[in-house]
Amino acid sequence: MKVKTLAIAVSTAMSSPVALAEVTPADLPSMIVSADFRPNDAHDTPISLTTIDQDTIESRGAQHIEDVLNLAPNVNVSSGASRGQYFQIRGIGERSEFQAPLNPSVGMYIDGIDFSRSGGAATLFDIESVEILRGPQGTRYGANGMAGTINLKSTEPTNDLAMKFESTLATYNTHAEGIAVGGPLIDNTLLGRFSVHSYKSDGYMDNDFLGRDNTQNRDEITARGHLKWLATDDLTIDLNVLHLNIDNGYDAFTLDNSRNTFSDQPGKDAQNTNAFALKADYHANDKVQLQSSLSYSKSNLEYSYDDDWSYKSQFPVDATCVDSDDSNDAFTCPYSGFDQYKRKRENTALEFRALSNENGRVFADTTDWTVGLYISEQRQNLDRTYYSNAINSDAVTGFVTKNAYKTLNTAVYGQLDTALTEDLKLISGLRAEYWDADYKDSAGLKDDPNDWMFGGKLGLEYHLNEDHMAFTTLSRGYKAGGINVEPRISDDLRSFDTESLWNLEAGLKSFWLDGDLITSITAFYTRRSDAQIKSSIRVPKTSGSGTDFVDYFVNADRVRNIGLEAELNWSINEKYRVIASLGLLDAKLEDYENPRLLEEGTKLSGRRIAHAPAYQFNLGGEYYFAPGWTFKADMEGKDEFYYSNSHNAKSHSYVLYNASVEYKKDQWKVTLWGRNLFDKDYYTRGFYFGIDPSKSYAEETYTQYGDPRVVGLTLSYDY
Question: What is the pTM of this model?
């Protein structure tokens, strides 16, 4: 089955974005967070780019970005939480965050607000488009865009009154309601749009000990607001506000790798966020355009879980557990534990930018220019509480650790877009960024690393004719280093260095058959230097039972990533449309060995890095079989991948099938949708360690399931 479905995808996919990126109307100028500094059609943007439109989001019943990411080639997601919150592009990205602060490889922005460390914020109601930019975005996004960037853009207010209502019922006691209203507020000079959405589901796990089916529940409220003030013909001011109240449960892992847990202390995956972005766009004259933005977010997050995945009396206490002072015996005794991480995050970013207008071009009127200044301060405070007790004892042991992490990033950047001929453009960008961090914790560990980092790109864009655009780009990305905070690691592993990479790619974007067939294909070669590789060491648990894996980052001298991304969008006729995508990836460690695996005789050099499947594909179609009726179906597949660079456990390859039937009349639409229709088991996170006392804590693979079959009905009104 795997070979057959891959062959279908390879033979069909040749690529195009799912939808075209929005071009800002001339009468509503604003600072758009988009693929480049100037708004542009996705098909004329010389990078590997996937955009996902609102219709696609709604046809899949998608509530969170994890529900649509498989549409983008060479993009993967890691869970280990209630949602998939950690993203990898072309095999580069983080997979989790525990005690150590996270410096992301993949940036995520919602209406210009940085949520790169908080992927759970990516809910999708009233989101107009999702842009996924693959490859380093060193000039535009700096340290947050080493692997790529994900942009979510909410629906813009317009001069016309607009209303949207949506209600969904689905399996697993899932229900959602949302409403959005927008239009002119004051004489067509002040426009606004406001939305609120509530999503609730019992989740897909059953807790047999507590007799509950909602310990992995989802309870998410999203409220958005957007004010657009057309102050003058030349000045536009935008204010975006966002409120998130996410109160999800976390009870995902089981000792028998099933969907039936026995934990007596289910955890939480919660986030409460208030954020805003204030943007101004001023056409100073016919030569210069000035843009500025100020964004701020404040979040309280909790991530907690039952550390033993069981209840206290689940395992009998035999004679070997009586003497708890005997460490060898105690190691095999059952225990009960709970781990909680509470974070407070504040992010503030300020950016100023100047761009040339048509009459401001330089070098004999051939070159558009952009210069900018970016300042960002991020603060994070973590309180971690862990407690446990052995089953044969009433004594509770534990600890509380606290740490504080602050970063200040200051960057200057510039870009020149030079028309060498009527059809050939040279793009050259450079960014210099100074990173200054300060870390301290309750164990007395302090560090204040800082570094200068440089990125940018040099590219050519060539229009062969009106229908075909070829491009090639050499770009450099980077990510700041950091500190490993776990006290149980040795001093020589305490810090890790800044990572950088060079990426060379070439692509072709084309229109065929009078524009009915749109394709794009990109090939890339990436060389990472001082690649930050997440590893771990094995230590006894604080409780004395089972094993802990202590995570830490280490630099590998060289990692190379080679691959291809292709997309296709073909309107065959008035009734049929085909959409396909394909990602191929060969991402390998070249000269890094994990000490633990090396002791066991396993070498990492030459092995694929974690969460980097060798292929991903999506193949779908739309059939407009009667007036107002549309049938959509697609299959999405992914190759096996290693869960970690610290062990040999890996997922299996899989194919999921999704479909929807939609009826639309006037402003009303009814959609019957289903995801994972054949209820395929697949996994989004995996570990390899010992946690089951009935097996004397023998090391095994433990996995978190992806979503099972979910079927729902959505009614919407869009005026």
Answer: 0.91
